[in-house]
Amino acid sequence: MAAVLEVKDLKVEFPIDGEYYSAIEKLSFSIHTGETLGLVGESGCGKSVTSLAIMGLLHPSARVRGQVLLDGRNLLKLTKSQFNTLRGNRLSMIFQEPMSALNPVLRIKDQVGEGLMVHKGLTKRQAERATLDLLKQVGLKNASDVASAYPHQLSGGMQQRVMIAMAVACNPSLLIADEPTTALDVTIQAQILKLLQKLAEEHQMAMLFITHNLGVVARIAQRVAIMYAGRIVEHGFVRQIFKNPCHPYTIGLLNSVPRIDGERHRLESIPGHVPSLRDMPAGCKFRPRCANPECLCRDSEPDLGEVEPGHQCRTWQYANTGVSGL
Ligand SMILES: Nc1ncnc2c1ncn2[C@@H]1O[C@H](COP(=O)(O)OP(=O)(O)OP(=O)(O)O)[C@@H](O)[C@H]1O
Fold first, then answer.
1. Residue 46 belongs to a domain
2. Residue 77 lies in a domain
3. Residue 84, pLDDT score
4. How does pLDDT run across 17-53, given as a tens digit for each residue?
5. Would you say residue 268 lies in a domain?
6. Separation of 48 CA from ligand 1 center, angstroms?
7. Considering only CA atoms, which residue is closest to atom 19 of ligand 1?
8. Distance (Å) of CA 173 to CA 167, 225, 311
9. CATH number at residue 284
10. Residue 130 φ then ψ, to 5°
């Protein structure tokens, strides 16, 4: 199957007090047609910087190296206007807070319709008809009432459905979903996950699903990349990561996921915190929080190595096994 998105050796640095500090390092992954990759990590691990780099929305002062290939085209080489054409068209994104992405003074039909007119060249009338279809597709039954409403007249779940309608309007190759259910209550979260799953299948989209919650990933993604301090520390199929987690950070994240099988157990949080960019430890970045710090981790950082086909981990145990591709 063809890779829709290939991120190769991405590095992002930000200037702080005149010096550059690295927020993303050695980041490589790919997503194929119809596939969802979950990108998981605590706050400050670099998930948003990754998505902003792909979307071409990083602050101009950021220094970006490596390659971000969408359908084989390196996005890091695009001009601003080429990026503007791509965004909302081949490349879409939905955010945690739909209200911050919707325009409060425009009716829903004008906001959804605008993308269709700009990117698909529809007339106003055609765009209105297509908008109604899209609103129905995302499960909004009273589509014509929703189309005439302003964002504040809709519930959070409805606003998120509208955002999803806008995001899939032009059949993107890649949809980035950044914590899209975090602000919603649990029942609505489940509905939105189901909707995204259905649309990804129907439209054969590749999806990058960003979250801090491994439990959510298990429900929507086929593969998962665990991120810590701007690096992928473990990567594999969801069943591999849940059955055989190998990196101490992944194990820590799994111990902090509430069980849904009803069995009660104590949730453990990982002691310590994600290092800030100016505070990165030498060697393994997780070492200060690790329950079993190995002496080797102090001096240098292990590369990703293969645990089993499709499953890679950044610990010394696997460091010299090589990686057959992500
Ligand atoms: N413009 C910037 N200038 C300097 N540092 C930045 C900038 N943007 C992000 N960072 C730093 O990069 C690191 C990664 O941040 P990022 O926002 O990607 O984390 P995250 O995993 O998405 O967290 P959250 O879940 O809270 O959004 C953090 O240490 C953050 O402080």
1. yes
2. yes
3. 87
4. 999 999 999 999 999 999 999 999 999 999 999 999 9
5. yes
6. 7
7. 44
8. 11, 20, 25
9. 3.40.50.300
10. -65, -35
